[in-house]
Amino acid sequence: MAAAGAPDGMEEPGMDTEAETVATEAPARPLNCVEAEAAAGTAAEDSCAARGSLQPAPAQPPGDPAAQASVSNGEDAGGGAGRELVDLKIIWNKTKHDVKFPLDSTGSELKQKIHSITGLPPAMQKVMYKGLVPEDKTLREIKVTSGAKIMVVGSTINDVLAVNTPKDAAQQDAKAEENKKEPLCRQKQHRKVLDKGKPEDVMPSVKGAQERLPAVPLSGMYNKSGGKVRLTFKLEQDQLWIGTKERTEKLPMGSIKNVVSEPIEGHEDYHMMAFQLGPTEASYYWVYWVPTQYVDAIKDTVLGKWQYF
């Protein structure tokens, strides 16, 4: 007869205790090679999963605006962002400087740039591009194009201080004495040319106006012998070309000592003008019927604003 067991659903006292004791006291069995490799693989997968949550975001593909936003154009670093630049060749004292400059900057701002390059003070500069560059107009307004040559004439402060003052005073006295003479247009040597009358093909004049030199030669005028003459201002070569039917004289502007002019009586909208090519008045090259609006531009172009006469 079987011994009476514990009722269903009930465990015999001491069974759990024994099981726990056995489990606790049972020594750990060494893993074989297959089990060890499987355990190591599981740990590696857990480690990779953990690192996967810390991976950096993928790099932006080429052309992505977000990636390009941090890349700047080196030419914009100077505050010229969004401004159209033009390539200029600035020529001063026989030296060329290649410069990129905003097309919408004024002549005054260009002078400041030239000052930073050459050390030539803006007030001492004569800047030429098809005539004098106006300080209040932009390069775009005077139609400066890429690759344009900007001619600069002027003296540094040291050059100005080195000027011989007594010589300047003598020249000023000579000019004052000249002003006391009979008007040039009444002198016999000039009357024989002026009495021929105004040339039919002379360029139109604008009385009371001042204009930059035109892009074409000044033509239709007379010289001292009564022949036709034209004046061409080659600013890139810093030369004045005096052309007649027979020949063309190419004169460096630096070789011209002085420029004098006087309105023609009865035709004050035209001038008679002389270029002094040597040390005395005998070297004057006379030109008659120069339109008055170009007189100041011619003097400034040939001599510059800083004269000591």
Automatic annotation (TrEMBL):
Residues 35-50 have a biased composition (Low complexity). Residues 86-153 form the Ubiquitin-like domain. Pfam families: PH_UBFD1_C, ubiquitin. InterPro entries: UBFD1, UBFD1_C, Ubiquitin-like_dom, Ubiquitin-like_domsf, Ubiquitin_CS. Residues 174-185, 192-201 have a biased composition (Basic and acidic residues). Residues 9-19 have a biased composition (Acidic residues). Residues 1-80, 172-204 are annotated as: Disordered. It comes from the Eukaryota. PANTHER family: UBIQUITIN DOMAIN-CONTAINING PROTEIN UBFD1. This is Ubiquitin domain-containing protein UBFD1. It comes from Daubentonia madagascariensis.
